[in-house]
């Protein structure tokens, strides 16, 4: 189920919050396995430990969300060195929607399955603020606060759906950019432009450059240079190649320019590097 399908599922749902709290789990505490019988969602504010859901361990870390569905076998333990602070919300929900002229109500299916378990968040602070808002509004008993609480809870789900959407998008983009890295490795001897690589990835040049640096810590241009220099190191270790030949083999017609680039990247000249390799 993708983010759009999740949004449609939640759009056709109505929620009822049964509890919202902010709790400290003391250092060293442990909860033996039990059946978690309701829907609930936790936000980890701070601390370390482990949640175990249906036999799968999830590390407790600040800025993560855990989503439970009924009949989940659950246990947890907290590290000895620090308390864990969590927000937790228990809720029920039903599918309530209009089909043509008729309102329909039915129990929820497995629509929350993609959000089950531990979620790493792209925007944890925004999620924390919404948990805090739901918690404070739920404690108020007046109808207006309760109505605002329900709105904030739906806004929280929307933010989680956007998180899923962003991760799906970044996953696709990351795969495309990683493919261009393979292409660079295979074609480093040929002239490679950022425009050519961005087109290969199917995204704009500016976006490609930004996301490439996010993934690898280098601009595409710098990455290409470093691939060339790594191959140059291998060739310098083979005595049958001279500097002019190596320069051309890694895609540089000007051996003096190649030498300057090699020294910038490695800190020493190609001839010094070759000498070191021979002496080893």
Automatic annotation (TrEMBL):
SMART domains: HTH_ARAC (SM00342). InterPro entries: AraC-bd, HTH_AraC. Pfam families: AraC_binding (PF02311), HTH_18 (PF12833). Keywords: DNA-binding. The keyword DNA-binding applies. Residues 178-276 form the HTH araC/xylS-type domain. Coiled coil: none annotated. PANTHER family: ARAC-FAMILY TRANSCRIPTIONAL REGULATOR (PTHR43280), HTH-TYPE TRANSCRIPTIONAL REGULATOR EXSA (PTHR43280:SF2). This is HTH-type transcriptional activator Btr.
């Amino acid at each position: 189920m993708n983010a759009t399908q999740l949004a449609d599922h939640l759009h056709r749902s109505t929620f009822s919050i049964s509890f919202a709290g902010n709790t400290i789990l003391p250092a060293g505490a442990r909860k033996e396995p039990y059946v978690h019988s309701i829907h609930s969602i936790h936000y980890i504010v701070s601390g370390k430990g482990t949640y175990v859901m249906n036999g799968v361990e999830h590390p407790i870390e600040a800025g993560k969300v855990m989503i439970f569905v009924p009949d989940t076998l659950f246990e947890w333990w907290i590290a000895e060195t620090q308390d864990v602070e969590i927000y937790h919300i228990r809720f029920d929900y039903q599918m309530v929607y209009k089909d043509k002229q008729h309102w329909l109500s039915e129990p929820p299916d497995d629509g929350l399955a993609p959000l089950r378990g531990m979620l790493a968040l792209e925007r944890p602070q925004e999620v924390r603020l919404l948990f805090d808002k739901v918690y404070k509004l739920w404690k108020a008993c007046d109808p207006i606060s309760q109505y605002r609480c329900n709105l904030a809870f739906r806004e929280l789900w929307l933010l989680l759906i956007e998180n899923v959407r962003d991760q799906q998008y970044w996953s696709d983009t990351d795969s495309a950019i990683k493919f261009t890295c393979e292409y660079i490795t295979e074609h480093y001897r040929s002239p490679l432009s950022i425009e050519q690589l961005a087109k290969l990835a199917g995204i704009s040049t500016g976006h490609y450059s930004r996301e490439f640096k996010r993934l690898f810590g280098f601009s595409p241009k710098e990455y290409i240079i470093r691939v060339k220099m790594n191959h140059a190191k291998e060739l310098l270790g083979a005595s049958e190649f001279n500097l002019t030949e190596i320069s051309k083999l890694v895609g540089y017609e000007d051996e003096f320019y190649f030498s300057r680039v090699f020294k910038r990247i490695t800190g020493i000249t190609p001839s010094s590097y070759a000498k070191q390799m021979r002496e080893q």
